[in-house]
Design brief:
The structure is a single chain. By secondary structure, the chain is of the alpha+beta class. It has two domains: 135 residues, Probable inorganic polyphosphate/atp-NAD kinase, domain 1 (Rossmann fold), CATH 3.40.50.10330; 137 residues, Probable inorganic polyphosphate/atp-NAD kinase, domain 2 (Tumour Suppressor Smad4). The strands form three sheets. It has a six-stranded antiparallel beta sheet, covered by helices on one side. Strands 13-12-11-8-15-16 form a six-stranded antiparallel beta sheet, with no helix packed on it. A five-stranded parallel beta sheet has the order 2-1-3-4-5, with helices on both faces. β1, α1 and β2 form a beta-alpha-beta unit. The C terminus is likely disordered.
């Protein structure tokens, strides 16, 4: 048997815990990989022991079985450790995944032969500052959202770009998104779609009141600072995770991150534009309402 490509020597398989079919496909894929000489690790992305193995540099490739949410969690784990991700779609959309659950057996020989390329996507670094001190720091693949809490009143968001005042948004929220996140919440809020290879931050206001109501694409390398002023609860959220409370005067600083997510791709580099229309026409909620 010829030598395995480095990416296949140690492979982790992570299935969404609520998708039994993903666990079963993972077992079958693990058996196929073991048959060609790969070492495999099966688990769930939230398991501490699973994460430790990846953080220890013991994994060359992670196969994520789930939807875009699973891919986001995989990105948070793998990007700091420079582990590429192959996504097998078991979800509804699959903007980030590469193959369907029916395709993995056909694709495995191409993976073995090195017939793939690695797509690099930027991450953001987001810092929460209270009284001028950093409280928490986060890696972000999709977006940072700063906005109101449960009380349905807009907040004032003083927004600076590269240390200079841009504007004060009066809005439900302000989204700072990556190009990857431009097809997520930012798209739903009316923002443009950016090609994934860009390294620009996208700003999109949610329900702005007498404020700038157009999305803004910042220059590559620019940073943004968002300071909250409100007499009612405000929050921020990272990649759709549980919201974190913000006090009046708290600031969220966002810049290009130090880490890059790498996705395994078999399609040609023009796949993104080719798949846009099919993705946009596959909204399951829209189909259900017909």
């Amino acid at each position: 048997m010829s030598a395995l490509p480095p990416i296949l020597r140690r492979v982790a398989l992570a299935a969404h815990p609520k998708l039994p079919e993903g666990i079963e496909i993972g077992r079958r894929l693990a058996a196929s990989l073991q048959a060609i000489g790969s070492q495999t690790l099966e688990g769930l992305l939230g398991e501490a022991s699973f994460s430790r193995r990846i953080e220890a540099g013991e994994i060359d490739l992670l196969v994520a079985l789930g939807g875009d949410g699973t891919m986001l969690r995989a990105g948070h784990l793998c990007a700091p450790n420079q582990v590429p991700i192959l996504g097998i779609n078991l979800g509804k959309f699959g903007f980030l995944t590469e193959i369907s659950q029916e395709q993995w057996e056909k694709v495995l020989p191409r993976l073995m032969n090195g017939e793939y390329w690695l797509e690099k996507r930027m991450m953001l670094c987001a810092e929460h500052l209270h009284a001028g001190k950093v409280v928490s720091k986060w890696d972000v693949l999709n977006e940072v959202v700063v906005g109101r809490g449960q009380i349905v009143r807009p907040v004032h968001l003083i927004t600076e770009v590269d240390g200079r005042l841009l504007t004060t948004y009066v809005a439900d929220a302000l989204i700072a998104a990556t190009p990857t996140g431009s097809t997520a919440y930012a798209l739903a809020a009316g923002g443009p779609i950016l090609p994934p290879e860009l390294r620009n931050i996208l700003l999109v206001a949610v329900a702005p009141h007498l404020s700038i109501d157009r999305a803004i694409v910042l220059a590559e390398g620019s940073s943004v600072s968002i300071t909250v002023h409100a007499d009612h609860p405000a929050v921020f959220s990272i990649d759709g995770q549980a919201p974190i409370g913000l006090a009046d005067g708290d600031r969220v600083a966002v810049r290009a991150g130090d880490h890059t997510v790498e996705f395994v791709r078999f399609q040609d580099p023009g796949y993104f534009y080719r798949n846009l229309t099919p993705h946009m026409n596959r909204n399951p909620s829209a189909r259900k309402a017909r």
